[in-house]
Amino acid sequence: MNDSTHSAHDLRELSRHVFWHVRMLFSLSDSLEERTLDIVDPKDAALLEAFALHARALIEFLWHERSARWSSDGRAERLFAAGGWATLRRRPESTLDGVFERASWGIIHISYRRTHEAENAQWWQFGHIAASIGRGLRIFLQNVSPERVVPEFIDQAWEAMPRELRTSIAISCPPDVGAQAAATPVHRGTWIERPGRPS
Fold first, then answer.
1. Helix axis angle, 8-33 relative to 153-160, nearest 10°?
2. Residue 108: which residues within 8 A CB-CB, separation 6 or more?
3. What distances in angstroms separate CA 186 from CA 9, 112, 156, one per listed residue?
4. Each residue of 162-190: b (16+ CB within 10 Å) or e?
5. Are 63 and 136 within 8 A, CB to CB?
6. Which runs of consecutive H residues, i.e. helices, occur in 66-195?
7. Are residues 19 and 158 in contact, defined by beta-carbon separation less than 8 angstroms?
8. How far apart are CA 143 and CA 89, in angstroms?
9. 144-177 pLDDT, tens digit each
10. What is the number of alpha carbons within 13 Å of residue 94 lying toward its C-beta?
11. Interatomic CA distance for residues 94 and 90, integer angstroms
């Protein structure tokens, strides 16, 4: 479907999917915060990988420009008058540098980059990433027209975000988010076979 053929109904329906990513991003960030950061169990690794994928989706939605190649992918700019979102949005914070690409080569694609990237490029500062995306979302929610989204979207998206990001001036980071980070076991070289597991 060509980008110009998306109807107002399509855009409103898209907001349901944006909300899904918003809710998952912050829920997964909270779940990771509660766990030990020495991730070995595949279920915990799956939480981290899911977080990275939802972060990637929201970065693409908020900051990537639409293109003919990806015309079926939703972008925040389509919910504003021409040039409106580009004027309103802030540049991605440095916390998000490389996150989109890392989710691609580190999780989605079996890439040779995994064998060459420095280990510190493979850790996920999940609390800081979620907070940085949240500040971008905050600007989006404050400015998107309610007519361009489904009726419940704005209120539910605000509710899904941490309290610190719902204040009149979003603080730089939730107070309980330090420099915690996690990496999937394969990135850390700690993916081990458990005794008794068939080879």
1. 10
2. 53
3. 43, 13, 36
4. bebbeeeebeebbeebeeebbbbbebeee
5. yes
6. 84-88, 99-103, 113-116, 126-143, 153-160, 185-188
7. no
8. 10
9. 999 999 999 999 999 999 988 887 565 544 444 4
10. 1
11. 12
- Alpha-carbon distance of 102 to 100, in angstroms, equals 6
pLDDT digits (tens, 9 = 90+) for 7-26: 889 999 999 999 999 999 99
Alpha-carbon separation of residue 38 from 44, 51, 79, 185 (angstroms): 9, 16, 41, 8
Structure token digits, residue 5? 């053929």
Please report which helix (H) or strand (E) contains residue 119, including its range.
Answer: none
The two structure tokens encoding residue 91: 């540049």
**CA dist list (Å): 13 to 74, 102, 149:** 11, 29, 7
- Domain extent listing, the chain: 7-66+75-187
pLDDT tens digits for 105-142? 888 888 888 787 766 556 788 999 999 999 999 999 99
Distance CA 149, CA 155 (A): 11
For 51, counting Cβ atoms within 10 Å of its Cβ (0-12 exposed, 13-18 middle, 19+ buried), the class is buried
Query: How many of the other CB atoms lie within 10 Å of CB of 95?
Result: 18
Residue 57 has a CB neighbour count (10 Å cut-off) of 22
The size of the chain, in residues, is 199
Q: What is the pTM of this model?
A: 0.80
